[in-house]
# Entry
Amino acid sequence: MKITLSIKDIEKQINNLQSINKKLPLKVNWAIVKNLKTLKAEHSCAEELRIKILETYCMRDEKGNSIIENGNYRFENDAEARTAVKQIEELNMTTAEVDICTINIADIEKCNGSDYEALTTHDIEALEFMIQE
# Structure
């Protein structure tokens, strides 16, 4: 199933799926792993572009290397910083069509069995975009 997500939502879904650390049915685990791989690939493309934006507007030392202090890029002035931030915000709102591996309600219900760990409300919310009825 293809769904459309913003880059910001892709990052959120990655974090949510990574927070699920339970013994689950194979089909549910497979879908989580497959979707994480797909989402991370999309996010990686966006991350490369984010770095390129920062590299374009940041200050450089005498050797032409980006100046990074305490993990943050340095900018010559506020205008340069605002331009970079604006472009990154636009990037985060950009959407991508992502092919998602789905599960159904019956797969979720299996998680309540004695062989598996029950899902919390947070877990189900993280899986929600993958559930097809």
